[in-house]
Design brief:
The protein is an alpha/beta fold. The protein has 3 domains: about 5-110 and about 240-300, FAD/NAD(P)-binding domain; about 110-235, FAD/NAD(P)-binding domain; about 320-375, Enolase-like, domain 1 (2-Layer Sandwich). Helix content is about 25%, strand content about 30%. It contains 9 helices and 23 strands. The chain has helices spanning about 10-25, 55-60, 65-70, 130-140, 150-165, 185-195, 245, 285-300, 370-375, and strands at about 5, 30, 75, 80-85, 90, 95-105, 110, 145-150, 165-170, 200-205, 205-215, 215-220, 225-230, 230-235, 240, 255-260, 270, 275-280, 315, 325, 335-340, 345-350, 355-365. The strands form 6 sheets. Strands 1, 2, 3, 4, 5, 6 and 17 form a 7-stranded mixed β-sheet that branches. Strands 19-20-23-22-21 form a 5-stranded antiparallel β-sheet, sandwiched between helices. The longest helix is centred in the last third of the chain and has 15 residues, at about 285-300.
Amino acid sequence: MSAIVIIGTGLAGYTAAREFRKLDASTPLHLISRDAGGFYSKPILSNALALKKTPAQIVLNNAADMERQLAATVSPLSAASAIEPSAHQLTVNAETIAYTKLVLAVGADPIRLPLAGNAAQEVQSVNDIADYQRFRTALDDKRRVVILGAGLIGCEFANDLRSAGIDVDVIEPAPQPLGRFLPPQAAYYLRTTLEAAGVRFHFGTTVQSVARAAPGITIVLADGTTLEADLVLSAIGLRPRIDLARTAGLTVHRGIVTDALLQTSAKDVYALGDCAEVAGFSLPFVMPIMQAARALAKTLHGTPTAVHYPAMPVVVKTPACPTVVCPPPPAVDGQWDEAVMADGVRALFHDSTGALRGFALVGAATKDKQALTKEIPPLLS
């Protein structure tokens, strides 16, 4: 019997399955997982040291547990290699599987820099629990880590590693941390607070080479600086996994293109999560994924439901400097108004009509998150 098939068992895939099961207890569900199929909270990976969580403790349920909870089939360590939309079929581990509806929740891959040096292949990235297990194993007894990228994940890992007493250098080509999210004064406050916690930033430069030099690794920067480390972690961003969709003839851009119903360009094929570009928005964060999963469950159940994106602040997990951002829509013209206080920065983004469209709160200003969120109109409704 054909089933609703979900490719991907991250937050997006499992949440869509859970929400669907609330509406329908009997329709066959089949989830395809490229990894072991366990359920865990991916955001915890960048602050697990502070929480004193081992990789084994992070996984809340294994694949067998999820099968029982969802009354579904979960196929771990399985690779989907082809989709035939016209035939409603896909190929998994060289076998053909039929579907009534297909959900692509395939996630994203870390961007890899083309680095010189004989230790370039030793540079680690953390995008899932298997990556994190390798990272924690490599981190054992290490005291010096270099992080590539001062974006959201780079800053979170820097804060987490410092909480464990590990020396941290962060390399960032932009002139500030969280360049995509914070205006200058808010970014400066975050920078100086993390520096006070022991993080060393190197802005306006890039890594030229990563070479093994016993007993550690030598990193040479474009500005001539040389750093010594035991481990190098890349956190420069993610690239949506679109190859499977592209090969199947689906429309792709930054991600797999969908409308507000999460429908791709192929009938009965949907996408959500880090791989999806929903009605022009690419939002690889927890709240948008949850909103999309709830809407998609209703659509899969037979009630077409467009996703609604309210204002969705992102909490940056840097306890040394509490930070919350609600980025303005990328196409909106406007300007930031920053109020610098002794214990934080309150930055508001107003559009050309004077309407509040985003904010960035650092330090004690984070107390205003709830009130400001209520003032911002929905991103997609």
